[in-house]
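lol so apparently i was supposed to do this last week
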Amino acid sequence: MHLNFESGRLTDVVFHASPNHSKRSSQVELVVIHCISLPQGEYNNDNVEKLFLNSLDSRHHKSFLGLKKLNVSSHIYIKRTGEILQFVPFNRVAWHAGVSSFNGRENCNEFSIGIELQGSVDQSFEEAQYKALNEIIKILKSSFPLKAIVGHSDIAPTRKTDPGPWFDWEKIIKI
Ligand SMILES: [Zn+2]
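anyway here it is w/ zinc ion bound
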């Protein structure tokens, strides 16, 4: 796996083109770690993929109703098995962080890469997910002037709790 700078895509990774992205005008300095599962804690489905592709049927589960008309995406999604999916090229802005701030700078989407781990804030993550995450971090580190890797909860503390207390920061490569 490596990064194709031209396309902004990782090689050897399944790419699903999310329509939810915008022009990137700032350089990438931040990686934001998230976790998500739909419904929360249920992993044996492709509902997150559908969410990022605007094709999730909100009638499918009562917790999906709030997701209707929500246009979100993440550059990368790492499933429980360690499988890596990409939805937005790194040279485009993905819509993962929402209202957020890092070191006083707002709208973190503009200068970050978003990585979603399939998971839940009240459960530990799989070794295969850390392995995949570290492979990606290694590539990003050598490709962008990264300043930090943070959790969604670090940049939107009043709104977000992911990736949560079970995410082991000791297991990921330092910047
Ligand atoms: Zn998040």
